[in-house]
Amino acid sequence: MSPAWSPDGESIAFIRLSSGTEASVMIIPSSGGHERKLASIAVNLLHRDTTRVSWAPDGNWIATTDVNFSALCRLILISVKTGLKKNLNYEPSKFDTDAEPSFSPDGRYLAFTRYIGPDVADIFVLELPHQEGERVEVRRLTHWNRQSGSPVWSADGQDILFIRDEASTESSIWRVAVFHNTDARLVESVGEGCSSIAFSAASNRLVFSKGASDPNIWRVSLDSPNTGPTPNHSAAPTRLIASTRVDSQPQLSPDGRLIVFSSTRSGDSEIWLANSDGSGERQLTRFHAAISAGPHWSPNGKEIVFHSRPAGNANLYILNVETGAYRQLTTGLTENYMPSWSHDGQWIYFGSEREGGEQIWRMPANGGPATRLTKNDGAIALESPDGRQIFYTKTSEPGLWMLSLKSGIESKVVPNTVGLECFTMGKLGVYFERSGEGSGFVISYMRFSDHVIRDVATINAPVGDSLTISPDERSIVYSQIDHSGSDLFLVENFK
């Protein structure tokens, strides 16, 4: 992925993913032939698609990203001759990722995208050091607190073109001055709905990709004898909740009568509610934030906890389903996301970066101080039915982990899960998603008692975010991507 021409046109650098979190920077002649590995880098699961390489105009360096000890992505330079990686001495993102580096035409500057969370990013620039080890400052060029990305330089090196997501509309191409304090400007009539851009200064040609993805919510039936769930081969999956926008992250209520989910059907990412058969959809939140997502029910079914990003950073909220009133659990500029309830209703588990890296935390549901639970990363957690353990995933490594709340011992229990919101709790075991044959996926089940794993359903389509089990464990509701595709468009004489 991410091919980049050398300045002389003789070589192409690219990224090769070797696992969920490991990658190599490769170089191959542009005419084909023997490739060579330049360096190894680590990638973040949430931002693999933003891992890019950019070749310096003098051909001596390649800019890309690497994950540091705190599981945060920062910019690095790699020598094309030696493969030596050089860290840049700058203040990296405190919360998430610096990505998508782009060299200026004169090679003196790097533009890049700084994420503070999923789908919340702005465009920054730094001047490369004049001498080894010199500390450099970063400058923020946009202040959108939504999604800005894919920065490329204009031919004269004075402007940066980038993609910005709009509230309630499609993404579009904007440009911002690098050396003058002016507002970003919309590029009219070009690039509506685009997802990435490339610009050729020599020919004044702009290429952009425009794609569409349609996640919807589906249900698949299981057979659940006393020995545990088994596939119901006579029942085909059925589509439950659908629109032309994103419908994902379904969670069945404790009594199985309702489904809460995240949807962009109103134009913004908001929390919605529907009956368990998919009827009666209604909007619960109107935050108009970059993201309102990750809903989970309280044990009594009266409240929903979720996270939202009205000002960019993620914080936790609790919503009363009947009245629509909500209260904010966390505040400030730390990242707090993907919450879930304990089975006794006393605690909220959530992922947070308040101490630098991603870890699982717990706080009282009524508010109060939070306690850190994990030591070695953690993003999304669910409590076991007996309240003795939590199961959780990480952005730094695929798999499913278990932590004893009594001893604090952490252990990996499933090696090959797909995604982060890939599991849900049953009464006697945990359900999770893993890769299947071809482009399909498998939903598997692991018993708590002996950790025996069995497959219970096959999904012949890409899965989206989250899955949830019915109270009788006879059906699973999950998110599925029903359509995904993109095209390339060429703009001649772009100025």
Features:
mainly beta, 2 domains, Neuraminidase, 495 residues, 6-stranded antiparallel sheet
Description:
The protein is mainly β and 495 residues long. The chain folds into 2 domains: 4-202, 6 Propeller (Neuraminidase), CATH 2.120.10.30; 214-483, Neuraminidase. Helices cover 0% and strands 52% of the residues. It is built from no helices and 42 strands. Strands 17, 18, 19, 20, 41 and 42 form a 6-stranded antiparallel β-sheet that branches. A hairpin with a 5-residue loop joins β9 and β10 (109-117). The relative contact order is 0.10. The model has no long low-confidence stretch (mean pLDDT 91).
| Top CATH class of the largest domain | Mainly Beta
At the fold tier of CATH, the topology name of the largest domain is Neuraminidase
Major sheet: 6 strands, antiparallel
Helical run tally: 0
User: Would you identify the CATH H-level superfamily of the largest domain?
Assistant: TolB, C-terminal domain
> What is the mean predicted local confidence, pLDDT?
91
| The number of domains | 2
How far apart, in Å, are the first and last alpha carbons?
A: 28 Å
Helical amount among residues, as a percent range?
under 10%
Overall, the morphology is globular
Number of strands: 42
Low-confidence parts: none
Radius of gyration: 23 Å
In percent terms, what proportion of residues is strand? over 45%
Just name the CATH architecture of the largest domain: 6 Propeller
Helix/strand structural class:
mainly beta
